[in-house]
Amino acid sequence: MKTILNADLHCHSVVSDGTLTPEALAERAKSNRVELWSLTDHDEIGGQVRAAAAARDQGMSYLTGTEISVTFIDKTVHIVGLGFDVADPHLVQGLLRTRGGRRQRALDMAEGLAKVGIPDAYEGALKYAGNHDLVSRTHFARFLIEHGVCKDTSEVFRKYLTEGKPGYVEHRWAALKDAVGWITQAGGIAVIAHPARYKFSANEEYAFFSEFKDHGGQAVEVVTGSHTSAEYVTYAETAREFGLAASRGSDFHSPNESHTDLGTLPLLPGNLKPVWELLDSRIQ
Ligand code: AMP
Ligand code: MN
Ligand code: MN
Ligand code: MN
After folding, report:
1. pLDDT by residue (tens digit) across 49-80?
2. Which of 138, 152, 162, 257 to mutate to test the pocket of ligand 1 (most atoms within 8 A of CB)?
3. 87 CB contacts (<8 Å, ≥6 apart)?
4. Taking the complete model, does pTM exceed 0.85, yes or no?
5. Ligand 2 ion local residues (Cβ < 5 A)
């Protein structure tokens, strides 16, 4: 693999909270000139075989992927896994357990919304979920917009789905050590997703990166649809400070909702080690 590459190693399909199928995403990635692609559905690898086949049909290189929800010091963070074996039993079991609590969480979210006069939100969210084991806040957001409660996703999250708001439910996701362990023991590389999104203090962020490394994590997203260009610079520096490889991914979910399309971000800064250099033997 070349060092400079249009790699997009973070996006979502209907198997989690995206609106496109793995095949449609592969086609879109190819037409946007992506050379190396990964589908990283939340807590799920049910789309991996289809995504790899679709990438092959498009003549595009592929890395297996997922984005695991993790609770670290009472905050939710996301860890992307790349290049793992999809049949690894510990990873499969770990993901099953991680997404297992989503149904009850969604029912509790709906109860909170019902209390403020929005009935039947669970059934409503389910209509938008391609995978009923993976109901996420995004599906609730789509339901609330469709029903005219809010005008767009950011308004829904701000008013209903974040801490302290009626549809928010505390949830305990996987432990950092477990998520990193499942990925690395399955032959993959663990990557800190969109680090600028977390509301950590400087000390908390230092602890997060240090523990991630201690558990065997090896990379961090530097160029992502969730970062500003100033944040590319900040996290390029953090990657170097912690000796982590760098990843790049749009976090694309939907043509109607995502402001960053597949394969359209700036390339990784040249003085970082691209994560795909660690994954040469895992590229399909
Ligand atoms: P969940 O895993 O159910 O907590 O849902 C998390 C998903 O909600 C993320 O992966 C994003 O797709 C979406 N999301 C979270 N925060 C926001 C936000 N402020 N605006 C729009 N989408 C968001
Ligand atoms: Mn999402
Ligand atoms: Mn994420
Ligand atoms: Mn994501």
Report:
1. 999 999 999 999 999 999 999 999 999 999 99
2. 138
3. none
4. yes
5. 17
Which two tokens mark 111?
């109860």
C-alpha dihedral over 121, 198, 233, 191, to 10 degrees? Answer: -80
Residue 148: burial class (beta carbons within 10 Å; 0-12, 13-18, 19+): exposed
Count each helix (H run) and each strand (E run) in the chain, helices first. Answer: 10, 9
For ligand 1, which residues put their CB under 6 angstroms from it?
17, 42, 69, 136-138, 153-154, 157, 253
Q: Rounded to 5 degrees, what are φ and ψ at 185?
A: -70, -20
Q: Does residue 277 contact residue 3 with C-beta atoms inside 8 Å? A: yes
Q: Are 145 and 152 in contact (CB under 8 A)?
A: yes
Which residues neighbour ligand 4 (ion) by CB within 5 Å?
A: 67, 251
Identify the pLDDT of residue 270: 85
Contact 236, 272 (CB under 8 A): yes
- Which residue's CA is the nearest one to ligand 1's atom 20? 154
DSSP 3-state of 152: coil
Whole-angstrom distance, CA of residue 54 vs CA of residue 21: 10
Ligand 3 centroid, distance to 69 Cα (angstroms): 8
Say if CB 174 and CB 98 are below 8 A apart: yes
Contact 217, 191 (CB under 8 A): yes
